[in-house]
Specification:
With 150 residues, the chain is mostly helical. The chain has helices spanning 2-13, 17-114, 121-124, 128-136, 143-149.
């Protein structure tokens, strides 16, 4: 108890004690604030480092999406080009067929004038039917034997 009284007596004699305590408390407060700021910076840095790979993955996914979109547009363009090519080929086929029909007319007229029998369209055949007839053995023989069968 004597020490308490001695401390109180010595403290009473010092008038700068409250100012010293206030200064020490302010310094401690500044240090605590500095620790808190450092902790926040560290947390921000750790969070940024943890999330950086995820951001990179999303960036790659976005680039992949853009790449897929470009590929789809290229395929659409190619599809339109193929469609146009198919249309042109159909038109060429129609013109070819009309040309053959037009070229055949004089020969048919000449046959009619000469009194020759006109061939029917089925006997003329078209590419696949001729080759099928040969493959199955149909269509063999001479024109004389065909004439007897009918």
């Amino acid at each position: 108890m004597d020490s308490v009284v001695a401390s109180a007596t010595s403290a009473a004699g010092r008038t700068s004690l409250p100012g010293d305590l206030l200064g020490a408390m302010q310094r401690q407060l500044e240090l605590v604030q500095e620790v808190i700021d450092r902790e926040r910076r560290l947390e921000t840095d750790v969070a940024a480092r943890l999330l950086a790979p995820i951001d990179a993955v999303f960036d790659l996914l976005e680039e992949t999406g853009a790449s897929l979109r470009h590929q789809a547009e290229a395929l659409e363009s190619a599809g339109r080009a193929l469609e146009e090519s198919a249309g042109l080929m159909k038109r060429q086929a129609e013109l070819f067929e009309r040309t053959i029909g037009t070229l055949r007319q004089p020969a048919e007229l000449a046959k009619a004038v000469a009194g020759l029998e006109r061939r029917s369209r089925k006997d003329q055949g078209r590419g696949a039917s001729k080759s099928q007839g040969r493959a199955t053995g149909q269509g063999r023989g001479t024109s004389k034997s065909r004439g007897r069968d009918s």
